[in-house]
């Protein structure tokens, strides 16, 4: 620091002759020079720029606690910060709100706002949404990294049963963890396919057999294959439930509910077959068993557990509820209007197929969706014209929300790939730090400096953080890492 008595620095003007409201403050941020007036800066007295107005009377210690360098001759304050972000932040003094420029990392922009001591409430809502999205990405990266670290780490203090549970969980839930786990995942996938094929083939009359009462039933061989598949699904579900770290969350998970729905009908049918006849009539038992066997179609959804494409499609549809709602609304309005018009126009024909407006709904549905079974069709000229307009409107209504849905699918798919790459990048940096033997010291030092949050020349000389750097504080306290996430570049 350059003290007040240093011969290379003239004395700071402390006579207070110049009012703070009329004072000019010259700020040089990353080579970009800006001039401010005290009356503008004092609107937000808690910000760093407003503190510059009154720091001259405090000497060089006060000055250098706020900036990186100071030129007394020009009364110019120097900051080694991002000039693009600074241009956005100073809008708060003129417009009372801040908009983030496109191309600036939201996390870095948030750090810049914290440095200039500008509250996040001045950030516009659209930019806050972008910042929240980036925070969610960092949380997801941190979660993935933490899961991988938990899988790699072995806690000697854990009991043998806990270690066994963790091994079973990795074996069944994480095919990428080992070669045997991949084999189990492939076997589970094959069992799902075999079970689904058996369910379909069992309905072919030529492959069915006739029981003593004359009723058709599945071939015993197919029934045995079905039993083997159910045995595999049951064993898999029970092992996963036993080894699950959070059994309540496991039981309420959507995919695990699907697993239960795929397994349960078999055991309920078996129970009704052997015990139900004593409690109810045989015909009622057979009807209940047939209804439960239909529920076996739920096992096809188990494929989503092994298919990232199906998972991405499910998420895209969840994110596209608004677009799908608009599509249904358009179709509902069109169905009501065109079915009413079709019914009215077809009443003049003696052989009309439009008996009522509710019956005409079916015609409007298959027409607007361009299915056109042909079971109901108009016979008058006006009715045909109405039908032509209805399917043209149906094509337009269906085509409108398709593009947003596809965009949601592509955006989520690309985001998952970026997050996966970023998580791998984090692990590579961790391995690099540990290989150099500097991980322990650098982590604790960075954690201390980050918690202090002091922007001073001494701090800047200790660690230089580029605008593509970020700090994942979501990992456990003893695991702090300074990283460069690809998502922030």
UniProtKB/TrEMBL annotation:
Residue ranges of the Potassium channel tetramerisation-type BTB domain?
25-126
Q: Which GO terms describe its cellular component?
A: voltage-gated potassium channel complex
Write out the entry's keywords from A to Z.
Answer: Cell membrane, Coiled coil, Ion channel, Ion transport, Membrane, Potassium, Potassium channel, Potassium transport, Transmembrane, Transmembrane helix, Transport, Voltage-gated channel
What does the record give under GO molecular function? voltage-gated potassium channel activity
In this chain the Ion transport domain maps to 182-416
> Which residue intervals make up region (Disordered)?
1-20
Pfam families in UniProt: BTB_2 (PF02214), Ion_trans (PF00520)
Protein family per UniProt: Belongs to the potassium channel family. F (TC 1.A.1.2) subfamily. Kv5.1/KCNF1 sub-subfamily.
Q: What does this protein do?
A: Regulatory alpha-subunit of the voltage-gated potassium (Kv) channel which, when coassembled with KCNB1 or KCNB2, can modulate their expression and their gating kinetics by acting on deactivation upon repolarization and inactivation during maintained depolarization. Accelerates inactivation but has relatively little effect on deactivation. Coexpression with KCNB1 or KCNB2 markedly slows inactivation.
According to the record's subunit comment, the protein's assembly and interactions are: Heterotetramer with KCNB1 or KCNB2.
| Protein name per the record | Voltage-gated potassium channel regulatory subunit KCNF1
Supply the source organism for this entry. Chloropsis hardwickii
Provide the organism lineage as a comma list: Eukaryota, Metazoa, Chordata, Craniata, Vertebrata
Which gene holds the coding sequence for this protein? Kcnf1
């Amino acid at each position: 620091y350059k003290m007040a008595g240093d011969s290379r620095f003239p004395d700071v003007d402390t006579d207070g002759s110049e009012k703070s409201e009329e004072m000019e403050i010259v700020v040089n941020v990353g080579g970009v020079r800006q001039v401010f007036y005290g009356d503008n800066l004092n609107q937000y007295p808690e910000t760093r720029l407003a503190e510059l107005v009154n720091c001259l009377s405090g000497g060089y210690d006060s000055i250098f606690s706020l900036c990186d360098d100071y030129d007394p001759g020009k009364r110019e304050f120097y900051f080694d910060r991002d000039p693009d972000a600074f241009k956005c932040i100073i809008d708060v003094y003129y417009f009372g709100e801040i908009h983030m420029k496109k191309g600036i990392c939201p996390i870095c922009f948030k750090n810049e706002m914290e440095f200039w001591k500008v509250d996040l409430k001045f950030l516009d809502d659209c930019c806050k949404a972008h910042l929240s999205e980036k925070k969610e990405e960092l949380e997801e990266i941190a979660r993935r990294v933490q899961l991988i670290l938990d899988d790699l780490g072995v806690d000697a203090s854990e009991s043998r049963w806990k270690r066994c549970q963790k091994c079973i969980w990795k074996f069944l839930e994480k095919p990428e963890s080992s070669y045997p786990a991949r084999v189990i995942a492939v076997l589970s996938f094959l069992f799902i396919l075999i079970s689904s094929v058996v369910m379909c083939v069992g309905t072919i009359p030529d492959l069915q057999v006739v029981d003593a009462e004359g009723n058709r039933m599945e071939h015993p061989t197919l029934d045995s294959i079905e039993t083997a598949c159910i045995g595999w699904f049951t064993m898999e579900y029970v092992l996963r439930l036993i080894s699950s770290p959070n059994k309540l969350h496991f039981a309420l998970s959507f995919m695990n509910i699907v697993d239960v729905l795929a397994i349960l009908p078999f055991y309920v049918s078996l129970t009704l077959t052997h015990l139900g006849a004593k409690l109810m009539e045989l015909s009622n038992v057979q009807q209940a068993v047939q209804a439960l066997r239909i529920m076996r179609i739920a096992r096809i959804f188990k494929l989503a557990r092994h298919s990232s494409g199906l998972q991405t499609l499910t998420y895209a549809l969840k994110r596209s509820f608004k677009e799908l709602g608009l599509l249904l609304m358009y179709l509902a309005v069109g169905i009501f209007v065109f079915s009413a018009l079709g019914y009215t126009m077809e009443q003049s024909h003696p052989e009309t197929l439009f008996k009522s407006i509710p019956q005409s709904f079916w015609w409007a549905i298959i027409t607007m969706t361009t299915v056109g079974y042909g079971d109901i069709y108009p016979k008058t000229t006006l009715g045909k014209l109405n039908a032509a307009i209805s399917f043209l409107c149906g094509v337009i209504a269906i085509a409108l929300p398709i593009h947003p849905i596809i965009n949601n699918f592509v955006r989520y798919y690309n985001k998952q790939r970026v997050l996966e790459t970023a998580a791998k990048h984090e692990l590579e940096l961790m391995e690099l730090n540990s290989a150099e033997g500097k991980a322990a010291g650098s982590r604790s030092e960075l954690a201390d400096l980050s918690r202090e949050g002091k922007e001073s020349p001494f701090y800047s000389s200790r660690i230089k953080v580029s605008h593509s750097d970020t700090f994942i504080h979501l990992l456990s306290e003893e695991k702090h890492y300074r990283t460069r996430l690809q998502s922030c570049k």
